[in-house]
Write a structure and sequence with these properties.
Chain A is an alpha/beta fold. Chain A has 2 domains: 174 residues, Rossmann fold; 123 residues, Rossmann fold. Chain A is built from 9 helices and 17 strands. In chain A, strands 9-8-7-10-6-1-4-5-11 form a 9-stranded mixed β-sheet, sandwiched between helices. In chain A, helix 3 crosses helix 4 and helix 5 runs parallel beside helix 9. The longest helix of chain A is centred in the N-terminal third of the chain and has 16 residues. By secondary structure, chain B is an alpha/beta fold. Chain B has one domain: HUPs (Rossmann fold), CATH 3.40.50.620. Chain B contains 6 helices and 13 strands. In chain B, the strands form 2 sheets. Chain B has a 9-stranded mixed β-sheet, with helices on both faces. The longest helix of chain B has 17 residues. The radius of gyration of chain B is 21 Å and the shape is globular. Classes of the chains: A alpha/beta, B alpha/beta. Chains A and B meet through helix 4, strand 7, strand 8, strand 9 and strand 12 of A and helix 3, helix 4, strand 7, strand 8 and strand 9 of B.
């Protein structure tokens, strides 16, 4: 029977959300084409993940490897490659996470399989698999097909495939698989935890978020004045941290924090998915951006198409007027 | 230390550009009206390579696969401090990552290198595959999404970005390949004068046949079928008027919603 394989990622005793998203999508595809869904997880205490993965999978392959605490690309690649070569799954699904980005391209070359990364949709039609990807800053959707191959590898964009709790209750097989390699060419040395900042944007009810459109460090002050008028806290998108305009503790998004304020006021933020996944829980999103086609307007409740540097000082003034 | 940096040119489709249209082939966008630029991530990779050259000595070579118009980004790389630039004269726009990885592997394997750097992804297609594939093809260790690095004796220590702002630390044996994340440094300002001056440096052009590759050996694994402009989902209620008027209306909306 045809097989769809999902690679399960875990860190610090917990499965990655994106792996559950891939399991949900994998379950739907497997049901559609009457294939079996196989989940593979590798590490020290893998039995702890078995029952959870079996909610979606027909079969969980829990590969016990005492050398591996959390998911890392090289040990996964060396363990998965022979499994894929032997079982020839029709499709391998991996989350497009930091781990997935470190693993999937090397694995694809290793097993000689076509690879599509960061996909927003995966479809099977008459046995043919196609994927959709968002390109050119999210302004264009591209549909891709693959050269004929026994196995395809696809990584899915985090947050794009919603998790539905599975009811499958598949079987769990635990195997010992000790790699003879030591990975001395790439030694894991530990983690650095995210910086603790003096403001906690995850608890703020009003966030005033600035993006590249703020143009200069000196203009941050304008946003600060607006934030203080609204009793809110400053947040930002990635470029603002990259340019050194605000510390990383203010960053919202995939590589920053996940927030759920009552008001998210986005100033000069285009709305790249890496940013938007961090603020899905917001009650009300207001965007001000001079680019009318900025993707953020598709997610915002209210929008103003104008230059933020013109609008912010007036808005601050009006809010102060209304308060007095 | 010898560092090779792979770079590419992209059309600027950032927030400053509101007109992105699909061309008649249905498989690409109209690029005439878009300003070509060096891929954001690649600029950080170049800057990092040049800074380490200044500390440790050695060379930096910038490489690309692209048409002659892409000489502009190679000149920019030379102006930033690269010693040599090589362009493989081939239009990579229609190729998949696997094919481009094969071509770059053929070139890089002929160069001296201790460290190879790629941008973590591109602004146009954003696959984030290329560097990791080239590392596997060359049989050397890699780390993607690198936000800091330190080159030591025969090894490089890196931190790579995880979700949520945490980092993962690794030590890689050299030669190694790193893909560089934005924000790792502040890329230097490149003046027109310095680009002009960089014309004295060597810019080599080579071809697939010179690298021993034939077009037949480069069958794509992934094929682009068609493009569509992204449909806009839930649309924001746009507040119209001058900056004065729209700011006033927004303040009222915020008041009505109880935020003020």
């Amino acid at each position: 029977m045809a097989e769809i394989l999902v690679v399960a990622e875990h860190r610090k005793q917990s499965l990655a959300d994106v792996s559950l998203e891939m399991l949900t999508k994998g379950r739907h595809l497997a049901d559609q084409v009457s294939a079996e869904l196989l989940a593979v997880v590798i590490g020290k205490d893998v039995n702890r993940y078995g029952p959870r993965l079996a909610q979606w999978a027909d079969k969980v392959l829990a590969v016990k490897n005492d050398q591996l605490e959390d998911s890392q690309a090289e040990p996964y690649q060396k363990t998965l490659a022979p499994i894929i070569k032997e079982r020839k799954p029709k499709l391998v699904l991996i989350g497009h996470s930091s781990f997935g980005m470190d693993l999937a391209p090397a694995l694809a070359v290793d097993v000689g399989a076509p690879l599509a990364t960061d996909c927003t949709n995966i479809a099977i039609d008459n046995g043919t698999i196609t994927v959709t990807r968002a390109i050119y800053n999210g302004k264009v959707n591209a549909l891709y097909s693959f050269a004929p191959s026994e196995t395809l590898i696809v990584t899915g964009r985090p947050g794009e495939f919603l998790v539905e709790e599975g009811q499958k209750g598949g079987s769990i097989e635990e195997i010992e698989y000790l790699l003879d390699e030591e990975f001395d060419y790439k030694r894991f040395e530990g983690y650095i935890e995210p910086e603790v900042s003096e403001v906690d944007i995850t608890k703020a009810e009003v966030l005033i978020a600035v993006g590249r459109g703020i143009k200069d460090k000196g203009n941050i002050e304008l946003a600060e004045e607006l934030a203080s008028a609204l009793g809110g806290v400053l947040a930002c998108s990635r470029p603002v941290v990259d340019y050194g305009w605000l510390p990383s503790g203010h960053q919202v998004g995939l590589s920053g924090k996940t927030v759920k304020p009552k008001l998210y006021l986005a100033l000069g933020i285009s709305g790249a998915f890496q940013h938007m996944v961090g603020l899905r829980g917001s009650n009300m999103i207001v965007a001000i951006n001079k680019d009318a086609k900025a993707p953020i307007f598709a997610d915002a409740d209210y929008g103003i198409v104008d230059d933020i540097l013109k609008v912010i000082p007036i808005l601050t003034q009006r809010i102060n007027d209304l308060k007095s | 230390m010898h560092t090779v940096v792979a770079i590419k040119q992209v059309p600027d489709t950032s927030e400053a550009v509101d007109v992105v249209e699909i061309d008649t082939s249905g498989k690409d966008i109209k690029k005439e009206a878009l300003v070509p630029k060096i891929n954001d991530w690649d600029e950080y990779a170049l800057e990092e390579a040049v800074q380490w050259k200044q500390k440790l000595g050695g060379t930096v070579t910038a490489v690309t696969v692209g048409p002659s118009e892409w000489d502009d980004i190679l000149r920019r790389a030379l102006a930033m401090g690269a010693d040599m630039a090589i362009r493989i004269d081939e239009d990579a726009a229609a190729m998949d990552c696997y094919t481009v990885a094969k071509i770059l592997t053929a070139l890089i394997s002929r160069l001296p290198y201790n460290l190879i750097m790629f941008g973590a992804q591109s602004e146009d297609f954003g696959s984030g595959q290329l560097g990791c594939m080239v590392a596997e093809m060359l049989g050397i260790p890699h780390a993607t999404l690198v936000v800091s690095l330190h080159v030591g004796e025969g090894e490089v220590r890196v931190s790579r970005e995880l979700e949520g702002g945490g980092l993962e630390l690794y030590t890689l044996r050299l030669p190694a390949l790193l893909t560089i994340q934005t924000g790792i440094n502040r890329p230097r300002y490149v003046s027109f004068a310095s680009i002009k001056k960089a014309r004295e440096k060597e810019l080599k052009v080579t071809s697939l046949s010179e690298l021993g590759l034939s077009n037949e050996a480069l069958t794509p694994m992934v094929r682009l079928e068609k493009l569509e402009l992204t449909p806009t989902g839930k649309k924001a209620e746009l507040i119209s008027g001058s900056a004065e008027e729209s700011a006033t209306k927004l303040a009222m909306i915020l008041k009505d919603s109880g935020v003020i």
